[in-house]
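Obj: model holo form, ligand = shikimate-3-phosphate.
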Amino acid sequence: MIFLIGFMGAGKTTLGRALEARLPGWRYIDLDQEIEKTAGISVSRFFALHGEEAFRQLERVTLTRVTHVDGDLIIGCGGGTPCYYDNMTLMNNRGLTILLEASHPTLLRRLLEAQGRRPKLAGLSPDEVSSYIRQAIDERTPYYSRAAHTFATDRLENIDEINETCARFIDRFISPADKSPDLISPAQS
Ligand code: S3P
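Output (holo structure tokens):
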């Protein structure tokens, strides 16, 4: 079981979905989407109606539930997941935690493109989003740094970059037995 963690915009969902498509037998589970299924409303709406504390409780319950799903799983967490209820301990006990890291300009660009569905960024100007990224990453680093590995995810902007980033990820973290035959280069087969 692999947990993708990292700040909003680091590419957890993009990479997780792309890996699922390239790794037969592996399944991607997006924690925010699981929460939305349970709650019947979007994460933004949930924050607005019930507040962050209730969200973090539901996030913990959902994380615990998905760690009991059988099979080869890649779980994409929310940016705040590692920082509540000792979720890092739970994840490190259950599988491999991988911190996805993108540069500040990359995060800012991605987050300004999709600000609407992120309750933590609601109502912030671009300058405020930029400062929030720095401040929140500082606060979250003690939790994020408990990940077993880090992986750079600046290059996820088009299909060529996604292919290249997935290949790099699979090479580093997926055992040869799990690789689809066409992902294994001739030198390895
Ligand atoms: C949050 C990140 C979001 C989502 C919620 C809170 C955070 O997930 O869980 O809006 O506190 O950083 P993504 O990182 O997938 O955007």
